[in-house]
Amino acid sequence: MPDYRELLNELLIYTAGQRASDLHLSPANFPTLRLFGHLVPLKKYSILDPETLQGIIDALPEDKKSRFLVEKEVDFSYSLNQEARFRVNIYRTKGIPAATFRFIPPQIPDIDDLNLPPIIKIFSRISQGFVLIVGPNGHGKTTTLAALVNLINRERSYKIVTIEDPIEYVFSPDKSIIDQRELFSDTLSFHKALRSTFRQNVDVILVGEMRDYETMSAAVTAAETGHLVFASLHTNNASQTIERIIDSFPASQQSQIRAQLANTISGVISQRLIPGIRGGLIPAVEVMISNSAVRNLIRENRLNQLNLVIETSSDIGMVSLNRSLADLVKKNEISMEQAEFYSLNPMELEELIK
């Protein structure tokens, strides 16, 4: 009988060695890496059949398999000794198991290493507020969050609590105390864990993902009561992010949450990882920093004007996504085609590049 654990470990070690972002195990396909945004089938292995996939699933920890049997899909973290760490999602497709393994680098990178705008370091140096990292799935939000929180860990003596599903980057305490809590293992929900932080003498809270209005409400309240809160959201830009949060609440509560957001929001970082002309992935980043103009627009529900404030506030460090894309095209780091693909306003982008 094949040793499916050995096969899985071999594939994971290879994934880590190639610095691929993901390993895909899907029926009727070769094991496949996502390498710099592109899918690369590993044709030296056999095409995956249902028996092999079930064997790989059976090689995973018993408690994860039990949840998978009940829930049909499950997220968790998986460590391969000290060699590699992965965020795992296992699921079913046409009744057959499948899995995606997201590689988590062992070292938390610095903001500078990620080629992100240095201005975003200011969000690690404020004492309270609400900072959101947004963008599509797989575009580096978790890594940016980890880099900002780790900067606090290195520079300040704070109590930090993270609430994640699952825990991805593992922090090593430096000047700060860091407690990492994983959904289901350490807490039953994001919003319960958030409310619990009010009794834990916490300075900084990281919320892996805001999925419902209870979590959003608890996060805003935490920022309002003197904490520095970092969170991620699957939205495209700053204005859409504020709108998504407000629209998540019942109509009767929307004016209240709008006022709370206007008072607490410190900034929004929206990012994309774009295939570079010379290989690799290049970040394009929108940065909104809250000032009186931003807060007034949120309070007065004129969110469609936020883009204009971002575009005209470069003197205090704000950057629009189109400005970031245009600069990358001018530096010959990404192609015009890629810039247009990721732009939310291609016509404006063309004018900027001209």
The name of the CATH architecture of the largest domain is: 3-Layer(aba) Sandwich
Low-pLDDT runs: none
Helix and strand string, N-terminal first?
Answer: HEEEHHEEEEHEEHEHEHHEEHHHHH
CATH first level of the largest domain: which class?
Alpha Beta
Rg for CA atoms: 21 Å
Instruction: Decide which structural class fits the backbone.
Output: alpha/beta
Number of beta-strand segments: 13
Task: Tell me what portion of residues adopts beta-strand conformation.
Answer: 15-25%
Strand order of the main beta sheet, please?
Answer: 9-8-10-11-7-12-13
Percentage of residues in helical conformation: 25-40%
CATH fold call of the largest domain:
Rossmann fold
